[in-house]
Amino acid sequence: MGKNDPYEALRFKEFKVFLLARFALVFGWSMQFVVIEWQVYSLTNDELSLGIIGLCEFLPAFFLAPFAGHIVDRKEKRNLFALCITLFSLISFGLFWLSSEYISDIWSTNYILIGIYSLVFFGGVLRAFFGPTIFSLIALLVPKKAYPNAATWSSSTWKGAAVFGALFGGFFIAWIGINTTLGIIFLLVLFALLLVMQIDKKPIMNKKTNESVKESLKVGLRFVFNDKVILGALTLDMIAVLFGGAVAIFAVFAKDILEAGPEGFGLLNAALSSGSIITMLATTYIPITKSTGKKLLVSVFGFGIFMIIFGASKLLWLSVLALFFSGVFDGISMVVRQTILQIKTPDEMRGRVGAVNSMFVGSSNELGALESGVAARIFGAPLAVVLGGIVTLITVTAIGLKNKPLRELDLRKDVEEHYEDVKSS
């Protein structure tokens, strides 16, 4: 295999356009998450209301994901991505409208909350399509030998946008207010749409046009559940996000425990992602291909340890530091997982596998928000986070002992084979 090129995927123009569009979209999406969480908690002062936001997005994202994957495999990816962004812009505009002074003067708090929850639910429907569409589109923008590098840059871009989106979201709430911030988010989504239209339409890889929906879903699920490496990697990440994460109740920590205000809220959100982005950028120069399975297990274990430290902390600087190192370990696990999926998934099944990935990992963010809200209500936010970190450690230990293929995973051979395939073609 030739010398590693950290900028290999960036040498393709359409992939660079895609990264810029994804950055703008996720930057706006992350800002919107921060603003909604802060606005809802300010209106209710109830931790459970934050969990309801997660539930509203989780339900449609999870249950529609298999059908979304089937549709994505049958549709042209560029136009489908553009359609998802267009519909998401309507959500952003709706939230901007709901936060206006005009609406606050004529609507009660309950009506505003219902409006927010409804738009979040609609966003969950779109989330079911976003994940598999993006996963499938990436593979059509670069050659197969560049998949590991493209997965790293795509994950880094996502995390980088989440970092700055969360950071600016918290600051903008304090500087320019909720309504103006949501207006900026709407413009960012439109900008992402314009960028995506610069990408050419792509061929449809799934030629089985007569395959029934039921059979299509079975094939996708069977592929994932029969592969112990993929299943183990997805399960690890799902448990870490579901029980180990605490993003949904950062508002509680910032406002009531650390007394850091909206600026501190933005710092907490950004700290977790900033550790991830630094790690993922580093992996473009030092690919995580040797002893990959062991590194995945260690990274998720480290994530759980630092989330426990965060839950026990009463100091802002220690909380930010703990979240930063949680993000470092989370970044490693994300790069490994995305690389595994990109390399091992057949082209004609990317939509369905991407959908299963969304069910395991993407939707667990929203379900994790519900779990965090309920646990915070029952045990209090600090103990809820500590208990979640302990569950993560137990899960990593169990999977590490039981799943030998994942524990012994080494991606060097797979990557070398892809390079040899390109040389011989």
Commentary on this structure:
α6 runs antiparallel to α13, α9 (228-244) packs antiparallel against α13 and α9 packs parallel to α14. The protein contains 17 helices and no strands. The chain has a single domain (9-199, 209-424), classed as MFS general substrate transporter like domains (Growth Hormone, Chain: A), CATH 1.20.1250. It is mainly α and 425 residues long. It is found in: Cell membrane. It is a multi-pass membrane protein.
Main beta sheet, described? none
CATH classification, class level: Mainly Alpha
Approximately what portion of the residues adopt beta-strand conformation? under 5%
Beta-strand segment tally: 0
CATH topology, by name, is: Growth Hormone, Chain: A
Mean pLDDT: 84
Query: What does the radius of gyration come to?
Result: 21 Å
Poorly predicted parts? none
Q: What separation lies between the terminal Cα atoms?
A: 15 Å
Structural domain tally: 1
Q: Do you know the CATH architecture?
A: Up-down Bundle
Listing every helix as H and every strand as E from the N terminus to the C terminus, the arrangement reads HHHHHHHHHHHHHHHHH
Judging from the principal axes of the Cα atoms, what is the shape? Answer: globular
The CATH superfamily bears the name MFS general substrate transporter like domains
Protein name: MFS transporter
Main location: membrane
Subcellular location: Cell membrane
Transmembrane segments: 17-36, 48-68, 80-99, 111-141, 161-178, 184-200, 229-253, 265-288, 300-325, 378-401
